[in-house]
Amino acid sequence: MDQPLVPAVPLPASLADEVVLLLATEGIEARIVPADRGVSVVVASAHLARAQGIVAEEYPEGLAAAAVRRLARDRERTTAATEARDRWFGRGAWVLGFLVLLCTALFIGEERSGGSEHRAVLLRFGASRPAHVRTGEWWRLVTALFVHIGPRHLLANMATLLVLGPALTAALGAGRFALVYLLSGAAGNAVSYLVTSPDVVSAGASGAILGVLGALGGQRLRFAASARFRGWQVVAALLAYLAIAVGAEPGVDTMAHMGGLGAGLMLGLVIPPEPRAPSTGDQLLSALCGAAALAILATAYTGLFGALP
Asked: Please, what is the angle between helix 48-58 and helix 13-25, to 10°?
């Protein structure tokens, strides 16, 4: 007749498997059976005393204490795995993949249309030029965010976006992140437009990425209790990004960077983070932000396509 190894003590499955394997190495057959809030390990009555002695040597604090410790460890691992999943695959992180795919697809189009470093090609795909913007082509302040000049420019920006973006998508969700990205990037391009020579052609996601960093800083200042990052991490990321940008881009558009950073900071200060269990109001806000971002993007590209010869 089988007897429970530790009566009335449910074990987590991982610990039960471990105990069964331990006893098997000593020639004792044990089985796992369901129990309330876990499982139980049973052995034949004839081997019970020996099995309990082996387990006592392996777990001197007692199997019950080992079960409590293992449950706590499993919960920590589950929480860490959930946070990692949310960071990269949940809570709106898919929007990062969409942005990378859009920028990459446009870059391939640039290369196939004559090269991503030719002015005519850049302007055709939506790059910004103050002289064009002054004629009413305001949408270039948005479309320029998705146009890149050379593969090094594209790779530097997309790699940085994938490193820094998950922290903000985890805090805001897809809709609010998309709106912050577009508005801060467009604001950076607008600042550049105001101070740049009329004939300068500019493009790239740099202003929007600095907007992401600014929004992270704003979230930390305004909603510190909800922030999943520390202030020094934001500063370190800013310095690292500026170092990468300066090294990767000849003729860096500093005003677009600073404009995007400032706009992102202001947006981060006023847009509340999305709770782990969002209410109907939080979900509505995210949906409205996402719809606004989609409307801005659609309007901008409608203007671009309408201006093409």
From this structure: 110
Name residue, tokens 């949408």: 139
**233 Cβ contact list (under 8 Å, min separation 6):** none
* Residues in contact with 49: Cβ distance below 8 Å, sequence separation at least 6, in sequence order: none
CA distance 22 to 55: 8
The stretch 42-59 carries a mean pLDDT of: 85
Measured CA to CA, the distance from residue 229 to residue 168 in angstroms comes to: 10
Residue type, 76: E
89-307 to CATH, choices 3.40.50.2300, 3.40.640.10, 1.20.1540.10, 3.40.50.720: 1.20.1540.10
**What's the pLDDT tens digit per position in 260-270?**
989 999 999 99
Answer for the pair 117, 134: CB distance below 8 angstroms, yes or no: no
Instruction: pLDDT band for 89, please (50, 70, 90 cuts).
Output: very low
Which residues are annotated as catalytic? 206, 257
Domain 2-83 is found in CATH 3.40.50.880:
no
Q: How much is the pTM?
A: 0.69
pLDDT in tens, 163-216: 888 888 888 889 999 999 999 999 999 999 998 888 889 999 989 999 998 898
pLDDT at 64: 77
